[in-house]
Design the sequence.
């Protein structure tokens, strides 16, 4: 009996010693392991649908839900292939990225909403940056011209969506639109034509002034009067309420202002990005693992969904922001991003090979109020997760 007790105490002590002394995996090794796995997963995913379509998410029965090139997410899969090619140098990935990118090309003329920046910037933009593919410059410039047609000088913004009578929106601008400004900055650096630059800066300035609350959070949708430029409404489409902080919107805004600082070096964008980052990282409803709930003000926290896409976008933005601030802040943002990447790379959020339809991340939320894409993989969550890991490793942009 005594002997048994002794053995049991020994085993428990050994387990405790192991747990207390176990070092977390080095973040570089963690990112490399996850990216190596991502290469395998994306080769497999790529084989499961035709070249004319794009992966969006999974249906409730686990089958792949695809979309056509006109849906806002079409650029993310080709973009992810480019990023994985950049990481691995694997020529077969480049071949597939070329094919998948070609399937987005017609969107360069699609002026029906602001998403042309996501579609063309993530696909052609990465292909141009990483592989200097002939012809991609022209596609980027055509797309930038198309996006610029949605700019209204009286409002000072690009119109994100068409008017919506039901919601009373004449000229809706959503915070997500900050992401599409990168296409305009690229067009200026490719041509030297500052017209694109001025549109981007005007849009960013109006967004900074009108879309943000004193605490550093933002509304999702603003509607302007297209004649006077006055703000008529401040609402949400995908958040919990008009006054809440919809998580992915906060991440888009953070990423967008960091990118605007990179492109302009205007101090007002940097200080605004810092304000957003501090609002998010100090938020009492941000879980310890750093992966936000779908809305920071969701009433049923902690019993509600996380949004891994919001986490991946935020991690990627924080890593770039860390390059532009003083040492203490830089450490804070980098450590926060690493914590988020660790969480995203753990079993709770990261899928294994041949699970989760070979998407990388689980538990994303497209639109909870719309009951669309709730607690599922999302192609854009994967894209920004890959980008964040490349940024951490010092490969890729910024
Ligand atoms: N509009 C893109 C999104 O759902 O975040």
Sequence:
């Amino acid at each position: 009996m005594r002997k048994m007790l002794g053995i049991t105490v020994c085993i428990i002590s050994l387990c405790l010693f192991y747990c207390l002394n176990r070092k977390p995996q080095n973040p570089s090794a963690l990112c490399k392991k996850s990216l190596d796995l991502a290469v395998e997963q994306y080769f497999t995913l790529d084989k499961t649908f035709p070249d004319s379509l794009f992966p969006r998410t999974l249906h409730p029965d686990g089958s792949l839900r695809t979309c056509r090139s006109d849906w806002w997410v079409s650029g993310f899969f080709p973009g992810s292939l480019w990023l994985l090619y950049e990481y691995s140098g694997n020529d077969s990935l480049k071949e597939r990225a070329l094919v998948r990118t070609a399937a987005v090309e017609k969107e360069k003329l699609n002026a029906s909403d602001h998403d042309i920046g996501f579609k063309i910037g993530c696909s052609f933009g990465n292909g141009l940056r990483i592989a200097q593919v002939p012809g991609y410059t022209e596609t980027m410039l055509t797309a930038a011209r198309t996006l610029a047609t949605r700019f209204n000088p009286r409002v000072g913004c690009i119109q994100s969506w068409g008017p919506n009578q039901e919601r009373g929106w004449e000229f809706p601008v959503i915070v997500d639109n900050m992401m599409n400004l990168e296409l305009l900055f690229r067009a200026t650096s490719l041509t030297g034509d500052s017209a694109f630059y001025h549109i981007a800066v005007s849009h960013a300035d109006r967004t900074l002034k009108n879309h943000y609350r004193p605490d550093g959070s933002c509304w999702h949708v603003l509607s302007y009067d297209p004649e006077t430029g006055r703000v008529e409404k401040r609402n949400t489409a995908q958040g919990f309420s008009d006054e809440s902080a919809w998580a992915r919107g906060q991440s888009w805004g953070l990423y967008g202002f960091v990118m605007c600082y990179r492109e302009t070096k205007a101090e007002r964008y940097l200080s605004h990005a810092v304000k957003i980052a501090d609002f998010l990282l100090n938020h009492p409803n941000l879980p310890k693992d750093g992966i936000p709930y779908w809305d920071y003000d969701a009433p049923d926290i902690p019993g509600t969904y996380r949004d891994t896409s919001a986490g991946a976008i935020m991690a990627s933005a924080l890593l770039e922001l860390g390059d532009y601030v003083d040492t203490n802040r830089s450490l804070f943002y980098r450590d926060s991003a690493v914590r988020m990447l660790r969480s995203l790379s753990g079993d709770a959020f990261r899928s294994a090979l041949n699970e989760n339809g070979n998407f990388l991340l689980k538990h994303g939320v497209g639109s909870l109020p719309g009951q669309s894409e709730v607690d599922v993989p999302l192609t854009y969550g994967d894209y920004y997760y890959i980008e964040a890991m490349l940024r951490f490793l010092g490969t890729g942009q910024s």
Observations:
- The chain has 13 helices and nine strands.
- The beta strands are 54-58, 64-67, 151-152, 157-158, 171-174, 221-224, 231-235, 364-367, 372-376.
